[in-house]
Amino acid sequence: MSNEGKKVKVHYTGTLDDGTKFDSSYDRNEPLAFTCMAGQMIAGFDNAVKDMEPGQTVNVRLEPKDAYGEHRDDLVQTIPLAQLPGAEELEPGAKVMLSGMDGRPFPAQVVEKDESTITFDLNHEMAGKALNFEITLLEVED
């Protein structure tokens, strides 16, 4: 029986291929609730939960295309420091919120800085990475 369109609650742990844990609902002591296959989750996670039964646990490995996509070089942007007041204080590794032309904020990470330019990576931090999830379906509401 498919869970598509149904509200579900799951507990999960996400790890990278090297075993590094990047997220876990257990750490927050709160299951994740979402509507299955409604576009609220990354595609591979939704697909894994779609045919699960309550109480079932699955382990899935998602390739980047089923998670946050491939890393895109066109989303790495270098701009003159003079165009971004305050950027001279930022260091590589810093995570910041930038504004698009339409004024909407989006996250970015500083990857490089020299005396005249700063380079931001606008890719999702999990882009280009395979993700592993252990998912336990706790409940399904019709």
From TrEMBL:
List, for all copies, the residue spans of the domain called PPIase FKBP-type: 5-80
Gene3D superfamilies, per the entry: 3.10.50.40
A Pfam family cross-referenced in the UniProt record is FKBP_C
Reactions mediated catalytically:
[protein]-peptidylproline (omega=180) = [protein]-peptidylproline (omega=0)
Q: Which GO terms describe its cellular component?
A: cytoplasm
Broadest EC class? isomerase
Q: Which family does it belong to?
A: Belongs to the FKBP-type PPIase family.
Protein name, as recorded: Peptidyl-prolyl cis-trans isomerase
Taxonomic lineage from the root: Bacteria, Bacillati, Actinomycetota, Coriobacteriia, Coriobacteriales
